[in-house]
């Protein structure tokens, strides 16, 4: 068992204050109502004190009692019980089997002399059914054998309303509404005095131990059960809470939510109603009274009265967190909900969840930490700030005060352990990636995405590129410096592109391809640049790098013109301007003219003529050193033949100027293909001649 300091024990009434000049005073019972404390003694005297409470900086309090007056009731027997009925300004005093009504302030008996006779014990119904605000309902164990009586008590009179028989002699009673919880000679029962229905609870032996029957809330009771158990029971005869384990010799019990407090011959023990664990033990000898009054717990010996002062629940929770007892702290925090105003509780509980999350995080319990951070609506920058240099320099974030944890940074938390540090960084990557698109990120997207980029870059993580090619809020200045530091130049180009700085992006990628800087992220970076320029809307940028891409590869580079969207090819990149650019690049020019003639099917004579001339030049170049009769048709020959067959737009006289034209035409006539059609000259144009004419 790990202890919790839930209460401190402070003195309220010292023996000297009671005894005065008497040699012996024996405290028999106490009652407390607001600031009014009443003490009944063995010599039939009732004392009235005023309690003054003074809060201490530690969260506890001290009490001082001022004696108001005392009065002897005229009997020779002890005062057995005291019960205050503040609505009536009356104190009910049980002495010598008689309940007397006295004024709460003067302690004078009521003038009418009203009293209840034949009472062995009494209990007030704190959940009355009568509905009259000017009376209280009192249940007594009658001196008549096996009888319970119910009374209505007014300012100056009493009225019996019910007498109920019990199967065995009742020894203790508590009442709630129409329900009586009774300790009989051998068992506990619940009895509905309105219907007469009774429900057995469990047995116990009255000869071996004192019964305890205490109402703890609406329709619920606490009982001293067998085997040293504090048992909870509802009016339905069931238990909705697990029992608490206390001493076999318990003589009194009280409730100060969320705690059950038990008294035996030597100790006061404190047990949680939330997890049933014993939380605190206070040495207390010769105690024989333990009662709670509206949340105030009083214990007494025969010579003095003491108050158990609860530490504020928030301080108890903080003490548990400081001891890293997270589960206990959370259980206690949840239980505190009923004692704290809703808005205040929500603020307190969120902070507790956040603190618990950092405790779990420091212990590398990342799943638990993540759930606590989410439930506690943690400002994620609290977590990011543990990692040096991850928050942008422009961030306005300052840590919570008082702090949520005790760590300056990740180095202190991990004590320099690199493996732990790596695990913490992997967790943050995962957590930030999960929350960046949720409400958690509202208002902090720049800080989150910038931190995530830095983590990805440092870890050489594949998700870096995914982050940069999708919607993100990475701050350019911080992110660019970090990417450059870690040689992530391709990623830096993506960052520039996302921030509409395409010129800087392309220049960076060009430098990588040229080998001026090193980044092996993409082995196909040249093709990537070509593709990027192909779909770029920046006309000036495309023209600026056209020569560079063509010099690297004419066949690939020309794609920046051939694969452009058609509307751009018709406007920004007119064929004439492109052809002018490509004159230095014959292979690229052929590809581009093929694109115009074959793909776009432009019916413009000069494109067809220029393409035919380029085909013919290539054919002549290839055949210049070979036997023209024996050489097989090359790709250029096939392309030329196809163009000559299908197009009638080229200028024939320009082709005739090529010295080898005639022999070429002859070659085409001799090809054994069904679709081949030789040509004849008519009116200055070469026309197809029907096959049968050949």
TrEMBL record:
Keyword tRNA processing: no
InterPro entries (alphabetical): Clathrin_H-chain/VPS_repeat (IPR000547), CNH_dom (IPR001180), Vam6/VPS39/TRAP1 (IPR032914), VPS39/TGF_beta_rcpt-assoc_1 (IPR019452)
One cellular-component annotation, GO: membrane
Entries under Pfam families matching the protein: CNH (PF00780), Vps39_1 (PF10366)
GO biological process terms on file: autophagy; endosomal vesicle fusion; intracellular protein transport
Keywords (A to Z) from UniProt: Cytoplasm, Protein transport, Receptor, Transport
Compartments in which it is found: Cytoplasm
Domain of life from the UniProt record: Eukaryota
Protein name: Transforming growth factor-beta receptor-associated protein 1 isoform X2
């Amino acid at each position: 068992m790990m202890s919790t300091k839930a209460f401190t024990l402070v003195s309220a009434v010292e023996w000297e204050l009671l005894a005065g000049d008497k040699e012996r005073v024996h405290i028999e019972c106490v009652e407390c109502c607001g600031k009014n404390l009443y003490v009944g003694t063995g010599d039939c005297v009732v004392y009235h004190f005023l309690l003054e409470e003074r809060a201490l900086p530690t969260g506890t309090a001290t009490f001082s009692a001022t004696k108001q007056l005392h009065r002897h009731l005229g009997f020779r027997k002890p005062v057995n019980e005291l019960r205050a009925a503040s609505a009536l300004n009356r104190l009910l005093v049980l002495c010598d089997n008689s309940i007397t009504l006295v004024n709460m302030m003067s302690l004078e008996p009521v003038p009418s002399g009203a009293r209840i006779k034949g009472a062995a014990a009494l209990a007030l119904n704190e959940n009355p059914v009568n509905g009259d605000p000017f009376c209280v309902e009192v249940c007594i164990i009658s001196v008549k054998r096996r009888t319970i009586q119910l009374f209505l008590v007014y300012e100056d009179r009493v009225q019996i309303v019910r007498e109920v028989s019990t199967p065995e002699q009742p020894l203790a009673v508590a009442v709630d509404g129409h329900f009586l919880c009774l300790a009989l000679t051998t068992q506990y029962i619940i009895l509905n005095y309105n219907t007469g229905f009774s429900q057995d609870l469990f047995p116990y032996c009255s000869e071996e131990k004192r019964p305890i029957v205490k109402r703890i809330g609406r329709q619920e009771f606490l009982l001293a059960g067998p085997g040293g158990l504090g048992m909870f029971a509802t009016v339905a005869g069931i238990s909705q809470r697990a029992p608490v384990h206390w001493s076999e010799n318990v003589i009194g019990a009280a409730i100060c939510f969320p705690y059950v407090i038990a008294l035996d011959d030597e100790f006061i023990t404190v047990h949680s109603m939330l997890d049933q664990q014993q939380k605190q033990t206070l040495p207390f000898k010769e105690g024989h009274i333990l009662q709670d009054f509206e949340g105030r717990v009083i214990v007494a010996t025969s010579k003095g009265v003491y108050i158990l002062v609860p530490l504020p629940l928030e301080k108890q929770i903080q003490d548990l967190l400081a001891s890293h007892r997270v589960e206990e702290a959370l259980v206690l925090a949840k239980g505190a909900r009923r004692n704290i105003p809703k808005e205040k509780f929500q603020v307190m509980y969120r902070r507790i969840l956040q603190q618990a999350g950092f405790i779990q995080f420091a212990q590398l319990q990342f799943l638990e930490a993540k759930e606590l951070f989410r439930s506690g609506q943690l400002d994620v920058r609290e977590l990011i700030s543990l990692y040096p240099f991850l928050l942008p320099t422009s961030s306005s974030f300052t840590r919570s005060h008082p702090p949520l944890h005790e760590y300056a940074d990740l180095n202190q938390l991990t004590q320099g352990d690199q493996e732990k540090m790596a695990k913490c960084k992997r967790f943050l990557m995962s957590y930030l990636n999960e929350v960046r698109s949720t409400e958690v990120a509202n208002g902090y997207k720049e800080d989150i995405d910038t931190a995530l980029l830095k983590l990805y870059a440092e870890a050489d993580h594949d998700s870096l590129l995914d982050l940069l090619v999708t919607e993100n809020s990475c701050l350019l200045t911080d992110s660019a410096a970090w990417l450059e530091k870690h040689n992530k130049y391709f990623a830096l180009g993506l960052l520039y592109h996302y921030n509409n700085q395409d010129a800087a992006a392309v220049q960076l990628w060009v430098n990588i391809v040229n080998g001026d800087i090193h980044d092996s992220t993409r082995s196909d970076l040249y093709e990537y640049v070509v593709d990027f320029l192909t779909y770029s809307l920046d006309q000036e940028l495309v023209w600026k790098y056209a020569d560079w891409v063509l010099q690297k590869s004419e066949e690939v580079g020309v794609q920046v013109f051939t694969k452009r969207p058609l509307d751009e090819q018709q406007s920004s990149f007119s064929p004439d301007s492109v052809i002018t650019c490509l004159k230095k690049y014959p292979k690229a020019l052929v590809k581009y003219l093929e694109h115009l003639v074959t793909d776009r099917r432009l019916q413009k004579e000069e494109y067809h003529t220029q393409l035919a001339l380029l085909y013919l030049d290539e054919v002549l170049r290839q055949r210049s050193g070979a036997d023209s009769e024996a050489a097989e048709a090359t790709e250029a020959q096939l392309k030329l033949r196809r163009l000559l067959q299908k197009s009638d737009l080229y200028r024939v006289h320009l082709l005739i100027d090529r010295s080898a034209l005639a022999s070429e035409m002859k070659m085409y006539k001799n090809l054994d293909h069904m679709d081949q059609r030789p040509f004849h000259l008519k009116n200055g144009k070469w026309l197809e001649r029907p096959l049968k004419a050949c």
